[in-house]
Amino acid sequence: MTEFNDLRRQVETVLIVILLFLALSYGIFRAYPLLTGPSIKILNLIDGSTVANTTFQISGIATRAKEITLQGKPITIDNKGNFTETLVATYPYTILVLVATDKYGAVETKTLRVIPR
Question: What is the 3-state secondary structure of 14-56?
């Protein structure tokens, strides 16, 4: 009978460890957006890009972002975080500042210089 109790106790211990592991994993999964904050990925330009015309487009993806601004003005993003904006570059170069904010208040800033031909 004591062998059965020992086996039962071992099974209970293993199940408790598994449940704790699952609870901890789920907590980390749910906290991931809070820990990482928003992210901005520019798809068509890099810092120092030369654009063919003074009018150009900037497009990208903002992940985990509640809102995003370009030059201090809000821009629209779709449900997947995609955005596209048309801008005018001035000589000798234009500085673009994108700021994404998530629902927790964390901020990500990207700064690019664009040079018109």
Answer: HHHHHHHHHHHHHHHHHHHHHHHCCEEEECCCCCCEEECCCEE
Taking the C-alpha atoms of residue 54 and residue 115, their distance in angstroms, rounded to an integer, is 9
Domain extent for 69: 37-116
First to last CA, the chain: 87
How many domains, the chain? Answer: 2
What are the pLDDT digits (tens) for 3-49? 878 889 999 999 999 999 999 999 988 888 778 889 999 999 999 98
22 and 59 share a domain? no
Q: In CATH, what number is assigned to the domain containing residue 89? A: 2.60.40.10
| Shared-domain flag, residues 9 and 60 | no
Read off the pLDDT of residues 81-109 as tens digits, 9 standing for 90 and up: 999 999 999 889 899 999 999 988 999 99
